[in-house]
Amino acid sequence: QVQLVESGGGLVQAGGSLRLSCAASGPTFSYSMGWFRQAPGKEHEFVAALSWSGSSTYYHDSVKGRFTISRDNAKNTVYLQMGSLKAEDTAVYYCVAKLGESGFSRYEYAYWGQGTQVAVSS
């Protein structure tokens, strides 16, 4: 079993930056990690993912070039560095994990954190 706890959310102005952190406990070896987000009144949207081997990263087109996902294996922590933030990035961001290869559907991820709020103002 894997437990995930997100942190680092907050209120920022458009064009600003934030770094989200996800602390994982349990057997994370061979687990792929990622981030989803949910804006008010909308469904969960894939944001980014990191393969279990750490050799591949994946991003939604809307954040490509602005967001970076990374992992510190020694600390069992995954990060989402967000830059050039836009109002449409406002959402609750969830850290997720799944066994094996990365996926792009929320239904593929068995483990979810509680979420951290990111609000971008103009």
**Rg from alpha-carbon coordinates:** 13 Å
Summarize the amount of helix as a percent range. under 10%
Mean pLDDT comes to 94
Largest sheet: 7 strands, mixed
What structural class should be given to the helix and strand makeup? mainly beta
Overall strand count: 11
Shape: globular
| N-to-C CA distance | 40 Å
Could you spell the SSE succession in H and E letters?
Answer: EEEEEEEEEEE
Give me some keywords for this one:
four-stranded antiparallel beta sheet; 0% helix; mainly beta; seven-stranded mixed beta sheet; 52% strand; 122 residues
Note down, in words, how this protein is organized.
With 122 residues, this protein is an all-beta fold. Helices cover 0% and strands 52% of the residues. The protein has strands at residues 3-7, 10-13, 18-25, 31-38, 45-50, 57-59, 67-72, 77-82, 91-99, 111-112, 116-121. The strands form 2 sheets. Strands 2, 4, 5, 6, 9, 10 and 11 form a 7-stranded mixed β-sheet that branches. The termini are far apart. The mean pLDDT is 94.
Q: What is shown here, in short?
A:
With 122 residues, the protein is mostly beta strands.
Task: Give a topology summary.
Blueprint: E1 3-7, E2 10-13, E3 18-25, E4 31-38, E5 45-50, E6 57-59, E7 67-72, E8 77-82, E9 91-99, E10 111-112, E11 116-121
Parallel strand pairs: 2-11
Antiparallel strand pairs: 1-3, 3-8, 4-5, 4-9, 5-6, 7-8, 9-10, 9-11
